[in-house]
Amino acid sequence: MPENSSLWLSTEIRDNRAKLRGVRDADRATIEPGGFGTLKFLSLDSHEVVGGHLGRDQPSSVHRPQSVSGALGHEGMLIPRPPIVAAWFTEEHAMPNEDRNFDLLCLGRLGVDLYGEQEGTPLAAIQTFAKYVGGSAANVCVGVARLGLSTAMCSRVGDEGLGDFVLDMLTREGINTALVQRDPLHPTGVVALAIYRREHFPRIFFYTESADLAFERDEIDWSIIRRSNAVLITGSYLVSESLRSSSRAIADSVRDRGGRVVLDVDYRPVLWGLVPVGRGNDMETFGPEVTATYQQILPLCDLVVGTEEEIAVVGGSDNISAALGEIRSLTAAAIVLKRGAKGASVYEGPIPADLDDGIGAPGYAVDVLNNTGAGDAFLSGFLSQWLRNRPFHECVQSGNASGAIVVTRNGCTPAMPFADEQTRFMVQGDIRRPDDDEEMNRLHRIGSRRPTVSWRYLLNFEDLALRSLVASSGGSPDRVDELKKVLYDALLQISEKERGVGVLFDRYIESGILEECMAREIFVTRSLDPSYERRESIDEEEIGIELRTWHNDIVPRTCAAISHAISKDEAVHQWSRLARISRICRLMEREIIVDLRPREGAKMSGTKLVKFLAESYRSNIQPDYWIFPELQDPKAWSAIEEILQGKDSACHGYFVRARSGTTRRDKVAPAGSFHGSACRGVIELPVSDPSGLGAWLNQSATDSEFIDAVSVGLLQRIQAWRTDGIE
């Protein structure tokens, strides 16, 4: 790389997650054809970028931090850091053979990681655990997918709830799971870990008879294997003769069609039966039979990746140079040696006398929280460029950046960076705490959150709204709870015919109806506020604890009650409250809906709402969805959409509270908005026929008759909105 810190930029054509994960539009350089793929050479000399910009001036030289002594995992460690470089490549690099469907097939462990949530605490004292997808092969599969390549997972999980969780999470990452087998007899593998002493992370492998280690060769769909451009073989899938046979057969199949084979040593003595189950963190104990097993697979490999301890196992010697020499005598594969605080070195040909003469890159200084995912993160970043046929120093740069980011976060798979996060980290060059960087956290949240919901017809089950409905029909407030139960039945009835239904609930709701809604995949948003005009102080601890008890698919909602006469002090109070609640939801990895509505009995003009919305963004309030009242002012809607597009183009969109009986979209929101249609649905009361409600209240209609009438009316109204072209 030239000393002037030259920069290669391009755009990522393939997007396995349905949206570009490259540099934001405002920061994307002009792309011109020519050379290798569609790259354009940009210079960062004189604090400027020629042909594009990064949104900030960059220095012409980069200060390289001094090395910090100690092994990988010590606070203040040095993870290799490149000069200012952001590598984005086109589909030409990712898929040189266009008849292939997957850039990378990952074969190996797939299960559940349980991370202790009390930092600095041994396993015996852990109170609660966070549940993530785990297993080295799965971690890499997710990491590579998040960096823009297409991946597939090949493993086995139990035919039970944890297996369902794993498959669901992989699917949400855009990973093909057709080769993940379901096992009716063996449970999904589980590993429990504690974040305790950076150099010593205790872990227990609950892997006796686990499903992934019971992988069946006879159940492999070889037509899918043959669609892979490369395969990652992991050492965990060499621990038994059955797994070795499957790994070799899959490697042979990929090689026969011109694909490449990667070996991640991934050595875990506990899985080989060499250490007691309580020594799951032991990475060094090995014997000659283990070395012989690894060496049998080496001739098939194009790339071998391992830590110093793992290379010693494969080479059969504690002398790393000697171990590398032994590996070189058995394979022509490039060898990637992960060297802890020294970064990583790549050896293509003969092993040099000085191991520092391998291909490497300078490093990043970061504050380490959790080094258990460092190796898998490094390999993900490395492979994201190696599979694009990039030079080894660029592969190492990418691997170093991903590793540096992940060690500052909890978990492994969920901590893997997306491409735009990695780019910011590499370009910025001096982010010591990626986990505490506001922009990186925003990019990570956007990348990892759930997809935007398709259009929804939301039924308003808020207590205040239903009480008003009953009162307007001459009913007693005592009938509200009874009405809710009947309307719940109507909701469940129409959900069998209409997938687009959703519901707004108050904070307090019967668990039974929530369970039914979740089982039927009904979109549910639930209020965090005891009442929609809550203005008392927010107990953050209370909300955080409560969110832990909610189903993960429920979207929390909070309200800002405003009016034309709202004072500046009141508005500031609202923004402060919204910011606190939003922060809680972010920490709990939850999406958030902010509901803007007029105070009871007050009016809210479009001008006031637009002003409040703009000030909300200036106060750094960025919800995943908004709820707006119905407005008759087209200029206000245009201004709203302009604000959303300009301030938060990543916002999923908004729902609109429609007046009863409204069916025309142009009475609620204008056609067209950012990213197609920003309107994600309308919100109405479950009952639009006062006479039908009145008949039920005075008991001239039975529950069954009322439920049927409500169901028919709701389906008609949903169809009316659909006919008006709102989806």
Structure description:
The chain is α/β, with parallel strands linked by helices. Helices cover 34% and strands 17% of the residues. The chain is built from 21 helices and 24 strands. Strand 18, helix 15 and strand 19 form a beta-alpha-beta unit. The longest helix has 21 residues. The two termini are 50 Å apart.
Explain the layout of strands and helices.
Layout: E1 7-9, E2 40-42, E3 78-79, H1 91-94, E4 104-107, E5 111-116, E6 129-134, H2 136-146, E7 151-158, H3 161-172, E8 176-183, E9 189-193, E10 203-206, H4 222-225, E11 230-234, H5 241-256, E12 260-264, H6 288-297, E13 303-307, H7 308-315, H8 320-330, E14 334-338, E15 344-347, E16 364-365, H9 374-386, H10 392-406, H11 419-428, H12 438-448, E17 456-460, H13 463-472, H14 480-495, E18 501-505, H15 511-519, E19 523-527, H16 540-547, E20 555-562, H17 568-587, E21 593-598, H18 606-618, E22 625-629, H19 634-647, E23 653-657, E24 679-684, H20 690-697, H21 703-723
Parallel strand pairs: 4-7, 4-11, 5-9, 7-8, 11-12, 12-13, 13-14, 17-18, 17-24, 18-19, 19-20, 20-21, 21-22, 22-23, 23-24
Antiparallel strand pairs: 1-2, 3-16, 5-6, 9-10, 14-15
